[in-house]
Write a structure and sequence with these properties.
Order of helices and strands: HHHHHHHHHHHHHHHHHH
Protein name: Protein DETOXIFICATION
Strand content: under 5%
Helix content: over 70%
Number of strands: 0
Subcellular location: Membrane
Organism: Oldenlandia corymbosa var. corymbosa
Number of helices: 18
InterPro entries: MATE_euk, MATE_fam
Oligomer: single chain
Shape: globular
Radius of gyration: 24 Å
Main location: membrane
């Protein structure tokens, strides 16, 4: 009896220790990513502030231009680069550095290729917006802003893959430091360029800051690779085969679509608000509420990326049980953080609206809407982390199906019905999105619950061992050629 009690105590201690170790591992990834995401939001706020100093038309045109750039360009590039996470994460876990190298090169090439049609779209933004009924003076400003933002497509085509390449190897501190330096550079460059070139200068400030971050990360990656001789010697940078492209493109589709669906959903939400009877006030209220959600989203996406990295690394290392534990600990942490985030939103609802507007009607409505939004955050935190978990298993299509069902088949129709037919306005739109969020989370939880982790580890082993098979075939071919020449 005493022996059993000792064994039970030891088992509990092992479980407790493993949970603490996992939380520590995730903290080391999550915190630097969180700082990185905060710097990104801070840069958006700084850009908006400098646009505001140039006048109302520049603010409206620059903001609309930035939104158009995000929806049609950066969402696509970001989504395509997300496909690197499962491949590079599992390759790093399996110590297959050749696969890491070739995936980085392929992703950069793919994003540069995708930038070509995006560039043509931006160059014709005036025709598109005029067809959508936008005012001509505003459209001219939007086109000027996007014209000077074009270099950022090339820069982001390198920056997104570099971030994924380093983060999947748990090298997140360099990403954080380079982002902080980029933010520090963003302020003076905007001061100088906004005075010298106005709107065009603010647009240039965006890609110049991104260029600095890209150069810093590229320099670090080269130095770090040379410092680890065994990684550099494996090479593989230019040894892409048909199977390598198939593997990457198979993940690119659902990853890109999932990211775009998320980004587009918020834009559709704004379009719905624009059709309400008191459109200006509704958009203002919704924008203020969503700004709070953006702050919390930076925490969610950091935790989700951490979960994706941990799961993919462990599956690549053929540690199915550890991957399973990492996934469920991430999920547990997200539930706790969801309640904390919702509570913070409720606590701040009396003062948040007044930070953006002094109109009593707007601040009163913001106060009401934050209660609904706080409910959404409770479900949104675990939802975003679930997306990270399925990415880590190289099954992003699950998140894509959940997003399509939850947000596009349920959230948007429910939001439209409640907002317009039942005259609930902004509250109806947000309630619709809460419904979509719950359905989306429910579907992803079912998907994750049904995952066979041993099978996923086997799939990861097959994915990362393809290189070994190719190497063996190449070696056999070289040997046969050598024998033939000798004969």
């Amino acid at each position: 009896m005493e022996t059993e009690m000792v064994e039970n105590r030891n088992d509990k201690h092992l479980i407790y220790t493993s949970i603490l170790n996992e939380l520590k591992a995730q903290r080391l990834i999550t915190f630097p990513l969180l700082v990185t995401n905060f710097t990104w939001f801070a840069r958006i706020a700084i850009t908006t502030a400098f646009l505001g100093r140039l006048g109302e038309l520049s603010l409206a045109g620059g903001t609309l231009g930035g939104t158009f750039a995000n929806v049609t360009g950066f969402a696509v590039l970001s989504g395509l680069s997300v496909a690197m996470e499962p491949i590079c994460g599992q390759a790093y876990g399996a110590k297959n550095f050749k696969l890491l190298h070739k995936t980085l090169v392929m992703s950069i090439f793919l994003l540069l290729l995708a930038s070509i049609p995006i560039s043509f779209l931006w160059l014709n933004v005036d025709k598109i917006l005029i067809q959508l009924g936008q005012q001509k003076d505003l459209v001219i400003v939007v086109k000027r802003y996007l014209l000077f933002l074009l270099p950022d497509l090339v820069i982001q085509s390198i920056l997104y893959p570099l971030k994924a390449y380093l983060s999947t190897q748990n090298q997140v501190v360099p990403i954080m430091l380079s982002s902080v330096l980029g933010l520090a550079f963003h302020i003076p460059v905007n001061v100088v360029l906004s005075k010298a070139k106005g709107l065009e200068g603010v647009s240039m400030g965006v890609w110049l800051s991104d260029l600095l971050v890209t150069l810093l990360l590229a320099f670090y990656a080269v130095v770090a690779e040379h410092g680890k001789v065994e990684k550099w010697k494996e090479g593989g940078w230019w040894e892409q085969g048909v199977q390598d492209w198939k593997r990457l493109l198979k993940l690119c589709g659902p990853c890109c679509l999932t990211t775009c669906l998320e980004w587009w959903c918020y834009e559709i939400l704004m379009l719905l608000a624009a059709r309400l009877p008191n459109a200006k006030q509704s958009i203002g209220v919704l924008a203020i509420v969503v700004n709070f959600d953006y702050l919390l989203y930076s925490v969610m996406i950091s935790l989700a990326t951490s979960a994706s990295i941990r799961v993919s690394n462990e599956l690549g290392a053929n540690q199915a049980r550890t991957a399973h534990r990492s996934a469920y600990i991430s999920l547990g942490a997200s539930v706790l953080l969801g309640f904390i985030g919702g509570s913070i939103m409720i606590a701040a609802r009396n003062s948040w609206g007044s930070l953006f507007s002094q109109q009593k009607e707007i601040t009163r409505n913001v106060k009401k809407m934050l209660l609904i939004m706080a409910t959404m955050e409770v479900f949104n935190f675990p939802l975003v982390v679930c997306g990270g978990i399925v990415r880590g298993t190289a099954r992003p299509n699950l998140a894509m199906y959940a997003n399509l069902t939850g947000f596009y088949l349920f959230a948007l129709p429910v939001a439209a019905i409640l907002a317009f037919k039942f005259h609930l306005g902004v509250a109806g739109i947000l309630i619709g999105f809460v419904v979509g969020c719950i359905i989306c989370l429910f579907l992803l939880l079912i998907f994750i619950w049904r995952i066979d982790w041993d099978e996923e580890a086997s799939k990861a082993r097959m994915l990362t061992s393809t290189e070994d098979i190719n190497n063996q075939e190449d070696e056999k071919s070289r040997n046969n050629n050598a024998v033939g020449q000798a004969q």
